[in-house]
Design brief:
- The structure is a homodimer of 237-residue chains.
- With 237 residues, chain A is an alpha/beta fold.
- Chain A folds into 2 domains: 4-69, Ribosomal Protein L25, Chain P (Beta Barrel), CATH 2.40.240.20; 75-234, SPOUT methyltransferase, trefoil knot domain (Alpha/beta knot), CATH 3.40.1280.
- Chain A is 30% helix and 27% strand.
- In chain A, the strands form 2 sheets. Chain A has a 6-stranded parallel beta sheet, with helices on both faces.
- In chain A, helix 2 packs parallel to helix 3 and helix 2 (86-99) packs parallel to helix 6 (222-234).
Chain lengths: 237, 237
């Protein structure tokens, strides 16, 4: 937690109040906050401030804003990921948000177990988005979309995301072309499930405008493939 | 698991035998192997082969090697990480191995809880190395070293790792210089604990030859910082 994210309603008066049990516990256990300390605070979907702690009680921490701070920019990327198993999903959402993904799309694929779509975590995405924003020091949630059917997504939605200067790359271990690096334009990146997309899916993605690209001859887990790809594509920016 | 890693002793005769319960269970549950299927197999610290399954029983799977395959190259990087909490450590070891880190060094730092050095996972590193190699399709374990004292490591060991064409970069959110990208030389990368190195530690690292570099203005978790940095540094190779 590198900033504390507040709801706009908590910042209406001159004195702001942290009342979330999770945030208060974190600040007391990991940061050991004291009156007079400064604290970075973001207003959800709004600005970010350096604040001063003016009161601490068991159930609330009171703050006074000192000065506005800049918010990190998003990466110009739409990340499209085959829904991973629930345990991985939580970390994946947090990491994608922390890394600054502008839009996240979760899709079905042949090797995605249908039970994954029933996980309660999908009802709690907002919580993991909050954790990711607090880690990054960001205040703006990325757009998140879910598509439970691969073919309609690939044929109807995906083509609307692709343009000449906005290509879509699907990571595929056996592609001959390599994933580009240090690009200076927006793009979509598609990451398959553990075990990969099946040939029919790769073919349909390519038919609908995707470029199949290889990340090299090491096969990465979904969770590590995402930061690896984003570092490779946008590390120069 | 993209290859099955065998001990050289299991590959002495013309017929090779998988006898590990973990490997057999994985192959039967996730891959649904059948007699006649091909299977990628690596010999620990040795070659990698495409093999054919010739017999399956409850406690063993028998193979016949068909042809040798190439092994992915290591990245020319020494990754130095402040020991993370045990749960993170396991994934970090696996990911560092999968990504192809040539040498991994775990060090102490002020913000590393001393209890982390007592975790049983540190006695099981070899298991997580095996999982990382099987994911990557690699057979060679990276060198792993542990240093429980920050100052002697930084003053006595670290300078021996640094040369003109082999710099050491320490990721530091407040550094003015940016982490380079797409480099064509070896290097060491140093990743601090959650909460970061303390100023004394950053100063000592710099005094001993490190360059403090920023990864941008998003603060990443250790686990996602590692693949992000490696994608950024070596994504072009």
């Amino acid at each position: 937690m590198n900033i504390v994210l507040l709801d706009p309603r908590q910042t209406q008066s001159d004195i702001w109040t942290i009342s979330s049990k999770r945030q208060i516990e974190h600040l007391q256990t990991h940061v050991d906050v004291k009156i007079g300390d400064t604290l970075r605070v973001g207003i959800r979907e709004g600005k970010r401030y350096l604040t001063e702690i003016i009161d601490i009680s068991e159930n609330s921490i009171q703050l006074r804003p000192l000065k506005e701070e800049s918010i990190p920019k998003k990466l110009p990327v739409t990340l499209i990921v085959a829904l991973p198993r629930p345990k991985v999903l939580r970390r994946l959402i947090m990491d994608a948000v922390t890394l600054g993904v502008d839009k996240l799309i979760l899709i079905h694929s042949y090797r995605v177990d249908k039970s994954y779509w029933q996980t309660p975590f999908l009802q709690q995405l907002d919580h993991y988005v909050t954790l990711g924003l607090e880690q990054a020091g960001d205040t703006f949630a990325p757009k998140i979309e879910l598509y439970k059917r691969f073919k309609p997504f690939t044929e109807d939605i995906l083509p609307t995301l692709i343009a000449e200067k906005n290509p879509a790359y699907v990571a595929h271990p056996y592609a001959e072309q390599k994933m580009p690096f240090a690009i200076d334009h927006p793009c979509s990146v598609i990451i398959g499930p553990e075990g990969g997309f099946i040939p029919y899916e790769i073919d349909l993605l390519i038919k609908n405008g995707c470029q199949a690209v290889s990340l090299g001859n090491r096969i990465l887990r979904t969770e590590s493939a995402i930061p690896y790809v984003l570092g490779r594509l946008f590390g120069a920016t």
